[in-house]
Structure formats: structure tokens, C-alpha cells
Specification:
The complex is a heterodimer of chains A (about 600) and B (about 375). With about 600 residues, chain A is an alpha+beta fold. Chain A has two domains: about 190 residues, Penicillin-binding protein 2a (Domain 2) (Alpha-Beta Complex); about 350 residues, Beta-lactamase, CATH 3.40.710. Helix content of chain A is about 40%, strand content about 20%. Chain A has 23 helices and 19 strands. In chain A, helix 10 runs antiparallel to helix 23 and helix 14 runs antiparallel to helix 21. Chain A is elongated. Chain B has about 375 residues and is mainly alpha-helical. The radius of gyration of chain B is 21 Å and the shape is globular. Classes of the chains: A alpha+beta (about 600), B mainly alpha (about 375).
């Protein structure tokens, strides 16, 4: 062979070899130096697995330490899924011991496909003791399966405090998007009530272990452990004894709510929305049947009426209207108007609830006997703006609880609101309707309780649901003390004087003050008025009038404020009667507590 | 009798030992700082291999010239034997169990092919190399074992056989037009060859072009390899500190992917060091070829050197994602018996050529010997 060719071609091959080696070095430079940091972090991600560790949810108690929400241990079978683990095989192995329906199996397989990470797959939760022991005894035949202990929220008082407390349940996808912590398997999140309002506090901080794992996802060693921090326990202001009674008392009616507040520090002692539901149904996912039943109930048990039911305050608002009128100076306590039972404004005839009239009516009598014509006269004389300010100062049209779920703010009618709703100008008719608590006036039971508490204490009371160490104090209200005294005297007389609308429901011993209200659900027709059927007892339940009552006890130096709303109960006297019974219970409890301190 | 070995060049021997030592250290680390299950066995093989190397180097080059064809034929028969009765190891038929030692004829074939082609071109008048009829025999010598090896299936070895053969044809002075024609032919026959590939081989090729295709299946190896490689950075993570390899994210870390493990533990610096050692050895081989006086010696030296280079190049390129995963070990470093023995045997031939650089070989031999 030609010498030259061999040398040339040898040199060419040497060049080829060197070039390819340079390419390899270039690639190594790219991988190790240029992208080195990136690949190193990928390597860390490969070997480090996070194993979340759920925190125990804070327990909730009533003011006397009675447990309202607790955690109970639950047992579940889990499958550690590693490379090569066959779920179908595991389910088959389990078959002789635990019944798993075809539907459940489908569900398990679906979850196993979606799942990632180290978290073991739950096969069945809430095992009975028998199931636990059966599985434990036969664990050797069940490779990959193990029993794990978890915790489940439980509400020992069932439906007694359901609305106030709310419940927890598995987080929705939307909630998980907003808060990645909620993607931890098995975590529960507050859905409504206190459980939702103070979810972050109650939830605590889930911990996690950093584990070094090998390619088979087997744990090699623990790198670090951040233990979970349990949620804060909460003590509510509720007194379960009073709550229990109030629930029982409201059960005499179809639907309604009752709130009792401490007049001086705003602590809510009873918080009832009736009818109620069992929050335990929701914790593990409510069944379709139970859900339908709750949804189909015409008395809407799932709605927290104490904060999201809005009602025309009707005559209960008259106390604030009188206060506003006296404060404006347009009328004083001795100013009287004549009530013939009706009044004409223009061509329209406005009726008083008492067909034959109240005669001469002053401020006090206007409240005691709830005369409508007095308010029509006031409405003709004064502007609405200053009255609106009074309503708002007493808490109407604003939310009373901090970030409490589903609380509605209600309405106080105003010129702007009317224009928005109807496009029409404000007229004296609007003032007339507003001043007696109809028209564009809507209040929630919690707002009505606040009105009562502020009237009773003269302070800017705000309702408290959680007991804190320091007793909250509130500034005095910016109202004329003399005017307030006139109103308070009248409220006392409304219950305790023979002319009062609630005289029948006065206490045997002691005295409470208050004001009833009957709010129309539909317009009273001329024919009904003529037949004296205005109270509507002849109507279908849902067309009957709401019964309202606001008040405080004792009438002098009050300690408790109360608001009662009975949906479609037919009138305010029913509400006054319920209030009287609840106050009687308060007296009983006071005696009980006093007796206890004596014996100690 | 061992007189000649006194003249053996000690420096490339030292480089061979150094490269092999990298293997020992890595296998020791891969075994969890233990001689078992890999490091000690590899070392014993190295010692045996070195003995073979010296023995092979000590024999006169004329002996190899004479036995070249017979060695090739025997090896070829062994390949057929594997095909007929070889057992399945690692999912592929590659081994013959001789009770004492397992022989992988495809490894021996790399040496046999080099010897046979070298002799063929030695005996051929260099002016007639490019005649088509003179090409029939060498092409058959390459193609038949390559086909058998592919059937095993061992794509890597088949590629090495074909490239080394092509290299020798190139050096023998074959007209460049043949290479151009072969290149065009190869590219245009890709779609046909594709159908002959096993499903897993197709997968490897597809995943080479798109590793995201199957991150947990076949693509897993190469992805994890890149991660391990990259996480080594400039200085590496240190002896035994490569988490990817130690935690078994890296498959086959003791065999085909040992370079990845090396790069994870010793970084870019280590990789440059190891590659430099390989280059030194390759350059020694080239020098031996250039200094040899007969065509047979030149082609044998180049053939051994080039197959060594091909091993290194294909293995490294595959673990850094430049070539599809074809299953070629890193020469002298990867764990594996026959590879180590045949490589050292090949180097024995290289040293033999070096020791007999001035020996003249007859142009024509009558008979097989």
C-alpha cells in the first residue's frame, strides 16, 4: 500500500479522534459547569421526599369548658405504593377480611393514578375495632398494607351549636389552589362558622419530615423533622346550658333565630338558628341522601339565620326612630300627636295597626303601644338623614362579626338606595315606611341583638364569639342621655305596663324591657284589613308575618341583651313570649351559679 | 524466553493500570466501600488480563499473522454456537459457558476481525485494494459476524465491528468513493434497517431524540444519567458522595453508566483527567502503528487502537446523551469479565507490534499457516 496514503489517512483519523473528544468535553462542560447547578437541584429533588405530618386541630369549648368540637382517632388501611406494587393484588388479598364494594375499588384505583409522592394510599377509612384487629392479625398475608391512625373532627353536641361552630370537611380544589397546605392528604378545612372564620388558628401548622429515599422510593434515612404544631384550642363565649334551652324553646316554632348577648362586654351567650343540622354528617363527606334531605327542607336548616337571615325590623326599629326624633329636637318627650287609626298623606291612606286609633300619643306611648300614626306625623315633620345616622350608629347595615362566614350586612333605606332600586326620588312615603322598619330596611338577628345591647348599655357594644383573657371594653355611644332614658323607660313599660304590647309576657319576678315587631311579608289587602285578618293567621306559613323582639334584662342596669326572630310566626307577641322564657332560664342559671359560689 | 518483555514500553502499561485503577475505586465506591461484589473480582480479572497481555506481547508477530484467519474462523464458529445453544444472560444471548469461564465470542470477534482484515490487506497488492472483487471478502468478514451479533441482540458490538472494519478499509487505502457511496447507502437504508431493530432498540433511539417521551421508562436512564453527571459540577461531590449513584437512581452504574458515576463523584476536573489518560493511550497506539514497518502490523495496531477509541467514544457519548443507549462498556473501567480480558489481550497485540516493529512479514503465505 502506498506509504503516503497511510500516513495521510492516519493523520486524518487522529484529527477525527481529537475532534470527537473535544465534542465530548464540550458536552461535559455544558452538563457539569453550565447546567451544573440545575442538575444538582434536580438530584436533590430526586433523593429528598417530604412526608407531611398533619397537625391536630384545636378543640373548641363553651365558656364553661364543655367540649363542642374534638378530634377522635380513626383507623384506616393504607397501601405503601412502591415500584411494582399491584393495587389490584392488594385489594384481592384484603377481600377475605374487609368488604370493599366495586364502586369503592374504582375510586381507590382512580385516586392511586392521581397520586404522587410518598403518601400511602388510603384503602379504607373509619375501620371498626373488629376490622382493625382482623387486619392486624393477618398483616403477614397482606404485603404493603398497614393500619394507620388518623384523626377526625367530631362534634359531640351534634346540632346544638352547628351554625355557630360550622364544620370541617375535605378541601375543595379551589381551596387547594388558594392554599397549597390544603393539598396534604387527609387534611380538613373549616367550611362554615367558627371553623372557617378561625380556620388558620384551629388548623395549626402541619409538620413534615425530610426523608432521603432511593430510586425505589424506599426510605434510606430521615434528614430532618419539623414536628406539626397543634391548632389553638378555642373557648367560645357561648353558655351551652342557655344555648341548649334556647334551641329547645325555638323548636316550638318552625323556623327562626335567637341571640343572647352580654350587654356589657358583647359576649354572645346563645346563638341559635332553627332548625339545625348535624355537623358530623359533613366531616367525612355527606351522603347524597342526607344532602338532599337538608336541601329540600323548606325551613333551610343549612342557612345560618342568625347572621344571614335578613328581616324588615318593623316596629322594633321604632325605638331608634323615637330616639332619633328626640335627639333632632323636632319633637320632645311631651309632644303629642292624635291617632285616629289612620292618616292621609296626599291621597294615600296610611293605617295604624290599631284600627280605632290610640288617641293622643307622645313619644313614650308611641313605643309602649307601638302607634304607627305618631311616626307618620314625625316623618312629615323631619328629614330622614338624621334618622338614618341613628340606625347606622346602632349597627344596622354593617357586619357585626369579624370575617364571620356568610354574615350579611342588611339594609338601611336611603335616597341613593331607592334611586338605585327604582330610579325614583325619595318622598315622604319612603320616610314613613322606613321609620316604622318597613321599606328598604333589612336587619339580621345579630344586628338586632347589637341594637338591644347598645340601647341597654349606652355603649358601642360589638358582639364577641371567642372568650379572651382581657374583658373587652367599649366606648360610650354618642347619644343624648336624656333621650335614651325616655326610650328605655318606654321599652320597660312596653313589657311591664298594662298598656304595653308585651305586657302579657312580663316576668313573674324581675323585669325586662323590650320592643316587639311584626314584619309584613306581603302587602295587606284592603279586603283582609276590612275582615280584620291583618295578622295573617289564615295564610299559608310562608306568607305569614315574621315575629320579632329585641330587649334586655334586667330593665334597670341591664346585663343581657336578646333578639328573637320567628319566621312567619304570625306576630311579635310570639317572639316576646320566647324571649320571656329564655330570660326565665337566664334567671334560673344565675341562681344556679350563685348557689354554686355560695357552697364553694 | 521473556527476553523481549524487557524492551516493553512501561509508560502505556502504567496508563493502563491507572485507568483500570479508576475502575477499581469506582467499583469499590459503588459496592458501598466494599471489595464485594465488584472491585475485587475486577482486580483479579485485571491481574489475569495483564498476564494475558504480557503473554500475547511476548509471542512473535509472525505467529499472529499466520493464525489470523484460523482465529477468525474459530471465533466465527463460536458466535454461531452462541446463536444455537447460548443461554440468555441479561436478556440477550451473548455467553458461552465453559464451566470455568464464560466466553463472549462477540468480544473475541473484535480482535479476530482486526487480525483477519490486517492479514487480508497485507497480502493484497495495494494498487488493487479498490477493485470491487477484492472487497467482497473483507466486507463479508465484517458483515457476517455483525449480523450474528445484532441477532443476539447486541447493537453496540455490531457497530464497533463495522466501524473498526471501516477504519481498516480506510487505512488500507480504499477509494474514498466507496465511503461516500456507503454513507449514502447507509442513510437511505435507515428506514429499512429500522424495521429490523427490536422494539426496545427502537425505543432507545426514539427516546434519544426525545428523552421526555418516557421519563420513567427507557428515558429514565439517560435523564438520571444527565442529572448525576451535572450534579457533579466542577470538582465533583467526592468519593462515595454521589447521591444519584449511591441511591440507585443511576441504573447499571457499575457497567455501562460507570462514567456517569465517575463524573458525579469527581466532576469536570476528574472527567478531563480520565479522558486525558485515554488520549495518551490512543496516541501511543497511533505511534505504534506509524512506526511499524509492515502493513499487517500497522493495521493491527490501528485496529486495536481505534476499537478502544470507539468503545470510549460510544460509551461516553451515550451517557452524556449524545448517542442513543446501545450498551457499550467504558474500556478498562466498566465491570465486566470478557471486555476486560479482550481489551488487555488487544493491548497485548499492540505491545507485540511495538516490540516487533522491525520484523518483516512475507507478502504471501502458502496455506493457512
Amino acid at each position: 500500500m502506498a506509504e503516503q496514503t497511510f500516513i495521510h489517512r492516519s493523520l486524518f483519523l487522529v484529527g477525527f479522534i481529537l475532534v470527537t473528544i473535544l465534542i465530548i468535553i464540550g458536552r461535559l462542560y455544558y452538563l457539569q459547569i453550565y447546567e451544573g447547578q440545575h442538575f444538582r437541584s434536580l438530584a436533590e429533588g430526586n433523593r429528598i421526599a417530604l412526608q407531611p405530618n398533619l397537625s391536630l386541630r384545636g378543640e373548641v369549648f363553651d365558656r364553661n369548658g364543655v367540649a363542642l368540637a374534638q378530634n377522635k382517632s380513626t383507623f384506616r388501611i393504607t397501601l405503601m405504593k412502591e415500584k411494582g406494587t399491584d393495587i389490584n393484588q392488594a385489594l384481592e388479598n384484603l377481600e377475605p377480611y374487609i368488604y370493599i364494594s366495586a364502586e369503592e375499588k374504582e375510586n381507590i384505583l382512580k385516586r392511586s393514578r392521581k397520586r404522587q409522592g410518598l403518601e400511602p394510599l388510603t384503602i379504607k377509612d373509619h375501620l371498626t375495632w373488629e376490622e382493625v384487629s382482623l387486619v392486624e392479625m393477618n398483616l403477614e398475608d397482606l404485603p404493603g398494607l398497614s393500619i394507620e391512625v388518623g384523626h377526625m373532627r367530631t362534634y359531640p353536641k351534634d346540632e346544638l351549636v352547628a351554625h355557630l361552630l360550622g364544620y370541617v370537611s375535605a378541601p375543595s380544589e379551589k381551596e387547594q389552589e388558594a392554599d397549597p397546605v390544603l393539598t396534604i392528604p387527609g387534611i380538613a378545612v373549616g367550611k362554615v362558622g367558627i371553623e372557617k372564620q378561625l380556620d388558620k388558628d384551629l388548623r395549626g401548622i402541619p409538620g413534615h419530615k425530610q426523608l432521603e429515599v432511593n430510586a425505589g422510593r424506599r426510605i434510606v434515612r430521615e434528614l430532618s423533622d419539623f414536628p406539626a404544631r397543634s391548632g389553638k384550642p378555642l373557648t367560645l363565649t357561648i353558655d351551652l346550658r342557655l344555648q341548649e334551652y334556647a334551641v329547645e324553646r325555638l323548636a316550638e316554632h318552625e323556623s327562626g333565630s335567637a341571640i343572647v348577648m352580654d350587654v356589657n362586654n358583647g359576649e354572645v351567650l346563645a346563638f341559635v338558628s332553627h332548625p339545625s343540622f348535624d355537623p358530623n354528617l359533613f366531616v367525612d363527606g355527606i351522603s347524597h341522601h342526607n344532602w338532599r334531605e337538608l336541601m329540600d327542607n323548606v325551613y333551610v336548616p343549612l342557612t345560618n339565620k342568625a347572621v344571614s337571615g335578613t328581616y324588615p325590623p318593623a316596629s322594633t326599629l321604632k325605638v331608634l326612630s323615637v330616639l332619633g326624633a328626640l335627639e333632632s329636637g323636632i319633637v320632645n318627650e311631651d309632644t303629642t300627636f292624635f291617632c285616629p287609626g289612620y292618616m292621609y298623606i296626599g291621597s294615600h291612606k296610611f293605617h295604624c295597626w290599631r284600627k280605632h286609633g290610640h288617641g293622643a300619643v307622645n313619644a313614650r306611648k308611641a313605643i309602649v303601644e307601638s302607634c304607627d300614626v305618631y311616626f307618620y306625623e314625625v316623618a312629615k315633620k323631619m328629614g330622614y338623614e338624621s334618622l338614618k345616622q341613628v340606625y347606622e350608629e346602632f349597627g344596622l347595615a354593617s357586619k357585626q362579626l369579624w370575617q364571620y362566614p356568610h354574615e350579611r350586612s342588611g339594609l338601611v333605606s336611603s335616597e341613593a338606595l331607592k334611586r338605585k332600586k327604582t330610579g325614583h326620588k325619595w318622598t315622604v312615603t319612603d320616610t314613613i315606611l322606613s321609620i316604622i322598619g318597613q321599606g328598604y330596611m333589612l336587619a339580621t338577628p345579630i344586628q338586632l341583638a347589637v341594637v338591644a345591647a347598645r340601647l341597654g348599655s349606652g355603649k358601642m357594644i360589638e358582639p364577641q364569639l371567642i372568650r379572651t383573657k382581657e374583658n373587652p371594653t367599649f366606648p360610650s355611644m354618642n347619644v343624648d342621655p336624656h333621650a335614651l332614658q325616655v326610650v328605655r323607660d318606654a321599652m320597660s313599660a312596653a313589657v311591664n305596663s298594662p298598656q304595653g304590647t308585651a305586657f302579657r309576657f312580663r316576668l313573674k319576678e324581675g323585669a325586662f324591657a323590650g320592643k316587639t315587631g311584626t314584619s309584613q311579608v306581603r302587602r295587606i289587602t284592603m279586603e283582609e284589613r276590612a275582615r280584620n285578618l291583618a295578622r295573617g293567621t289564615h295564610l299559608d306559613w310562608k306568607y305569614r308575618e315574621h315575629g320579632l323582639f329585641i330587649g334586655y334584662y334586667p330593665a334597670e342596669n341591664p346585663k343581657y341583651a336578646i333578639s328573637i326572630v320567628l319566621e312567619h310566626a304570625g306576630g311579635g307577641s310570639k317572639a316576646a313570649m320566647a324571649a320571656r322564657d329564655i330570660i326565665t332560664k337566664i334567671q334560673e342559671l344565675e341562681k344556679e351559679d350563685a348557689g354554686e359560689t355560695e357552697t364553694h | 524466553m521473556l527476553e523481549k518483555l524487557r524492551h516493553i514500553n512501561p509508560y502505556p502499561l502504567a496508563v493502563i493500570f491507572l485507568i483500570s485503577s479508576v475502575g477499581f475505586v469506582l467499583l469499590f465506591s459503588a459496592g458501598g466501600s466494599s471489595l464485594m461484589p465488584w472491585a475485587l473480582k475486577q482486580f483479579i480479572r485485571f491481574v489475569v488480563g495483564m498476564a494475558i497481555l504480557l503473554a500475547v506481547a511476548n509471542i512473535d508477530i509472525r505467529f499472529y499473522f499466520r493464525v489470523a484467519y484460523i482465529f477468525y474462523v474459530v471465533t466465527f464458529l463460536l458466535l454461531i454456537l452462541v446463536e444455537l445453544m447460548g443461554f440468555v444472560g441479561m436478556g440477550a444471548q451473548r455467553w458461552i459457558d465453559l464451566y470455568i469461564i464464560q466466553i463472549q465470542p462477540s468480544e473475541l470477534m473484535k480482535v479476530a476481525l482486526v487480525l483477519a482484515l490486517a492479514r487480508y490487506f497485507h497480502e493484497l497488492d495495494s494498487a488493487k485494494v479498490s477493485r470491487l472483487k477484492n472487497l467482497i471478502l473483507p466486507v463479508l468478514m465484517m458483515a457476517l459476524p455483525a449480523l450474528l451479533v445484532i441477532r443476539q441482540p447486541d447493537l453496540g458490538t455490531a457497530l464497533v465491528l463495522l466501524t473498526v472494519g471501516a477504519c481498516l478499509l480506510f487505512l488500507a487505502g480504499l477509494s474514498l468513493w466507496y465511503f461516500i457511496a456507503a454513507g449514502v447507502g447507509a442513510v437511505s437504508s435507515i428506514p429499512i434497517l429500522w424495521n429490523f431493530l427490536h422494539e426496545y432498540q427502537k425505543q432507545r433511539v426514539l427516546i434519544f431524540f426525545d428523552p421526555g417521551r418516557d421519563p420513567l421508562g427507557t428515558g429514565y436512564h439517560i435523564t438520571q444519567s444527565k442529572i448525576a453527571m451535572g450534579s457533579g459540577g466542577f470538582f465533583g461531590r467526592g468519593y462515595g458522595q454521589g447521591t444519584q449513584a449511591a441511591l440507585n437512581f443511576l441504573p447499571e452504574k457499575q457497567t455501562d453508566f460507570i462514567f456517569t458515576m465517575f463524573c458525579e463523584e469527581y466532576g469536570f476536573v476528574g472527567a478531563i483527567g480520565l479522558i486525558s489518560l485515554y488520549v495518551v493511550l490512543i496516541m501511543y497506539g497511533v505511534r505504534v502503528a506509524m512506526l511499524a514497518s509492515s502493513t499487517f502490523s500497522r493495521l493491527v495496531a490501528w485496529g486495536i487502537t481505534f476499537s478502544f477509541f470507539i468503545y470510549m467514544f460510544v460509551n461516553m457519548s451515550m451517557v452524556i446523551g449524545l448517542l442513543p443507549v446501545v450498551g457499550v462498556p467504558l474500556p478498562l473501567v466498566s465491570y465486566g469479565g470478557t471486555a476486560m480480558l479482550t481489551l488487555l489481550m488487544g493491548f497485548g497485540l499492540l505491545f507485540c507490534v511495538d516490540l516487533h516493529r522491525n520484523v518483516k512479514l512475507p507478502q504471501k503465505v502458502i496455506g493457512l499457516f
